[in-house]
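pls ignore typos typing on phone
alpha-D-galactopyranose + seq
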Amino acid sequence: MDQTLQIMLADFLGTFGGNADGIRCFFAPGRINLIGEHTDYNGGYVLPVALEIGSFLLARPRRDRLLRLADSQWPQPLQADLDHLTDFLQEPWGSYQLAIAHILQRQGCLLQGCDLYYHETVPLASGLSSSAAIELVTATALNRLNRLQIPPLRLAELAQTAECDFIGVQCGIMDQFAAAMGKANHALLLRCSDLRFQAVPLHLGDYRLLIVNSNYPRSLLQSKYNQRRQECEAALAMLQRALPQAANLAAITPRQFAATGAVLQDSLLFRRARHVISENARVLSAAAALTAGDLVSFGLLLNASHRSLRDDYEVTGAALDCLAETAQNIPGVLGARMTGAGFGGCTINLLPGSQIEAFQAKLSAVYQKKTGRLPSFYPADSADGAHEIDRALL
Ligand code: GLA
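k done
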């Protein structure tokens, strides 16, 4: 990491000039979600793990009202005026960062200008929440530089609102929560209806979690995601005729659904609701299995989650199905499923550490034959949520 920061520092000074005085360093993680997909905006449970890969940021305050942004992966720096941020929210790059500054100001926070240099180690647009990492690293830096003293959980909520209001994805809270509150060597069992959470130790023994990137561009993510959300709202409204006390889909138990689901004559809405309700129950079973060290049961729940996302929620697609189903059939693999919103992106796979190389070779061969693409692999090493990095490392 020291080397990454050194390269970033050289690029920062090359882009913005000056010397290293006053530059501070921040990190926010990407995430995988172990299980509990598309449950967050339905008030349900999720089980994300914050990753060691994420977004690094070097930040230096300025005396004026300018925000200058640069990124190791984007050719052009961007300069925005803190008094006219909405003019810049449509820029092809930088909108996540500026949306954070904008929402902080909308809360009445007084911000001073600064120079911000980003470097992402989490792959972009791959379903590992690079956007939430960028949002939370920005929010954490602005919070510290401006001495705003906003607690991390509140920063996560503000970032989620910024994404809904200014970026246009009607996302739930999971990604921003994981980026803000992650805990190394733990998953976070979060109930999204009231943000109560508990850290679940990741006791994997000789097993490892491996991330596989389909390298398949996520198509229509924004519109299909928002459409799923609307379908859930429509299903809830119909179910509430039979269950008026249900505040959200996740508040409905599988047993209640078995008794009342027939009101959803529209089979599409029935399947959407069945996914959410069954997935929510699977999260609690999975957290219990993980806590008990029962990785076999945990793996079976991962497989069941993928099936439900494929057949009932219809967010997987051929590339993710090929990766998950091929992995599930490799001897020794305990479970595999897509993670994140879907429509492309990544799978997570639970397998013996000793089999990783053979697994990668086998999966790559099958995937390349079926899709013409090669997958990428990353270890799912866990990390803490967004934080400032000791300056001594610079
Ligand atoms: C995206 C969203 C999250 C969540 C997942 C699906 O990552 O940002 O809020 O809805 O999809 O579980």
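The radius of gyration is 21 Å. Residues 33, 37-38, 40-41, 171-172, 174-175, 340-341 surround alpha-D-galactopyranose (CB under 6 Å). more later
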